[in-house]
Amino acid sequence: MSSIRAACLLCAALFAMVKGFTHEDMKDALLKKLGLSEVPRIHKRDLENLVIPTHIKNKYVSMLKLHHARKRRSLPSLAGILRGIPGNADISGEFVYSDTTRQRVVFEMTSRIPENNEVTMAELKLFKKAPHKRSVPERKGHRPVNNARVSIYWVEPLKDGSNRTSLVDSRLIPIHETGWKSFDVTQAVHYWSKSRMEMPMHLEVWIEGERPAVTRQKWPSVSVSQLKIQTTTHWENLSLFFTPSASRSLGKRGFKLC
Question: Which GO terms describe its molecular function (predicted)?
Fold first, then answer.
């Protein structure tokens, strides 16, 4: 009983000390710690001549970058949110033909999208492998090649045997990196759904130099050959995310197609 009473008295004493520690007390403590008699008055000319030590500046920049990186990681993407729904998987594609700069992949879409549902987002995931040799002999007058442009086209086979293509996504891919790269092919799925839906969906992957406007002869051959994409079927994945259409809306829940 005495120990409980002592604990209560200690808490009361601490509470009184905290309550009695005012803003002025805090200011006086800081001034005493810094060896100052009053709060310094900073003028504009003082700020103009202010010199920040390099190690302090570097520390601030590193902390700022770390803060931005944590902030980006803490904000989940829509694809990540929908991908987390259990019981869903990706669709594998099948290559029709491929060469150094162009690859055609086909997705069987029959019965993949449930009735009265519409696709809200679609992702094509490709696996990029870095080249074995990082150092490439530079040619005189050419800057080092670090990126290649990868473009995704929707292909519509026409009845006369020709093809009609539409660009749906294009971005620069670093040559010397390895990993999965995602492309937004939502527009391609919309194109396919408005055309002959009984046919598979055809996509083409085009690999070009960093600046397609420059003729290929002006580019080192490594600008294309160094961007290697796996051509085995299981590497290609198409993720579809859909919601009930307005006619039979059951809420805002998202689904990923199995």
Answer: cytokine activity; growth factor activity; transforming growth factor beta receptor binding
Token readout for 158 is 């026409």
Nearest CA among 88, 105, 111, 130 for reference residue 236 = 105
Distance separating the N- and C-terminal Cα atoms of the chain: 65
SS3 content of the chain, % helix, strand, coil (to 5): 35, 30, 40
pLDDT at 15 over 50: yes
Q: Is 203:100 a contact under the CB 8 Å cutoff?
A: no
C-beta of residue 167 within 8 angstroms of C-beta of residue 106: no
pLDDT digit string (tens) for 194-212?
876 678 888 888 888 766 5
β-strand 179-184 against 117-129: which pairing, if any?
antiparallel
Give the single-character DSSP code of 193: H
Read off the pLDDT of residues 139-164 as tens digits, 9 standing for 90 and up.
Answer: 555 666 678 888 899 998 888 878 88
The CATH label, of 3.40.50.2300, 2.60.120.260, 2.60.40.3140, 2.60.120.10, for the domain at 81-256 is 2.60.120.260
Domain ranges of the chain: 81-256
